[in-house]
């Protein structure tokens, strides 16, 4: 079974910089 990844973020604090996506991909070698 494939490993699934996810994370929680507070959308009210989002500025649209996508740093969370970059950090997730870097952390999980994607």
The arrangement of helices and strands along the chain is H
Average pLDDT: 84
Backbone shape: flat
DSSP strand content: under 5%
Distance between the termini: 17 Å
Low-confidence stretches: none
Instruction: Give a count of the beta strands, DSSP E runs of length 2 or more.
Output: 0
Task: Provide a count of the helices.
Answer: 1
Helix amount, in percent? Answer: 25-40%
Radius of gyration over C-alpha positions, nearest whole angstrom: 11 Å
Largest sheet: none
- Class based on secondary structure composition and strand pairing: mainly alpha
Short description, anyone?
This protein is an all-alpha fold and 30 residues long. It has one helix and no strands. It is flat and about 35 Å long.
